[in-house]
Structure to design on (304 residues):
């Protein structure tokens, strides 16, 4: 790499893929440079704005710029950050197969805490069980979460027309359980997605592991609109929350908690609980309240 080219490339950039201590950093003019992080531990995630410098034929990330927001995922053993600086979350579910409402709720809670707007997209609306799927999403519509309906395979042009304005000028993290049609959505909106994954995989020497990594795709040549694909339906990490934070992050619970007799009501057993009164009156769905109690127990048991 020439000195002139090196000086031209050095500067701020955006992480568009990461694996271990390596990251693909995109420069302001759209070029991509393979970089590594300093030290043994990497806390760089897709969407990060980073300050980096040329180091031989590659680059080194000096520091991560301040993040607007940060999302976490968790497994049985640990919680790890995986995406930053997101403008909106798009959760893709389908009429069939049935999705896990707990996963959907965890995603919405994580987005609420991070201040990220959420859109729900219901796919496969050409199937005969559409009415039942709409009923399952009724509590989310009532909370003010936008729900959009489409059929990615049978009405692709209509789907593209709906998604275009929804994704315009935003960096959108798209999530969906297996079988919901997320790969179809990505390929519809980003025809070169498969090729980009292959190129990134080779560059990061990540092989098949890149298929489980988060990747940033531009939707337009001007690089104003982006899709961030995080394969699988991430089990959103909520361990950074206290159990007492939970009610304010679930809008239907929060709305009725104002009527509780006690300011520190857990909404589990106290007398004069506005939440349980709303549940009894049919104003909160039983499934949503069940999820609240399960998450409350999980967060109460979290060891720090």
């Amino acid at each position: 790499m020439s000195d002139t080219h090196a000086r031209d490339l050095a500067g701020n950039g955006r992480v568009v893929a990461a694996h271990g201590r390596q990251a693909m950093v995109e420069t302001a003019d759209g070029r991509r440079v393979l970089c590594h992080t300093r030290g043994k531990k990497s806390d760089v995630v897709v969407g990060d704005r980073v300050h980096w410098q040329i180091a031989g034929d590659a680059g080194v990330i000096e520091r991560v710029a301040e993040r607007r927001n940060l999302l976490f995922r968790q497994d049985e053993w640990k919680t790890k950050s995986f995406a930053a600086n997101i403008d909106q979350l798009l959760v893709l579910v389908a009429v069939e197969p049935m999705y896990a409402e707990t996963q959907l709720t965890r995603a919405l809670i994580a987005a609420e805490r991070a201040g990220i707007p959420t859109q729900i997209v219901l796919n496969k609306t050409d199937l005969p069980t559409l009415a039942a799927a709409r009923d399952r999403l009724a509590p989310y519509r009532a909370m003010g979460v936008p729900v959009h309906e489409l059929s990615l395979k049978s009405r692709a042009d209509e789907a593209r027309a709906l998604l275009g304005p929804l994704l315009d000028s935003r960096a959108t993290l798209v999530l969906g359980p297996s079988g919901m049609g997320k790969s179809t959505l990505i390929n519809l909106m980003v025809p070169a997605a498969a090729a980009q994954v292959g190129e990134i995989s080779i560059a990061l020497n990540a092989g098949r592991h890149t298929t489980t990594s988060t990747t940033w795709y531009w939707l337009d040549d001007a690089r104003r609109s982006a899709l961030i694909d995080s394969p699988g339906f991430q089990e959103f990490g909520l361990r950074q929350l206290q159990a007492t934070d939970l009610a304010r992050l679930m809008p239907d619970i929060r709305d009725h908690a104002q009527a509780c007799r006690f300011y520190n009501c857990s909404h589990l057993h106290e007398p004069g609980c506005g939440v349980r009164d709303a549940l009894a009156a049919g104003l909160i769905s039983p499934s949503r309240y069940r999820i609240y109690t399960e998450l409350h127990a999980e967060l109460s048991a979290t060891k720090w």
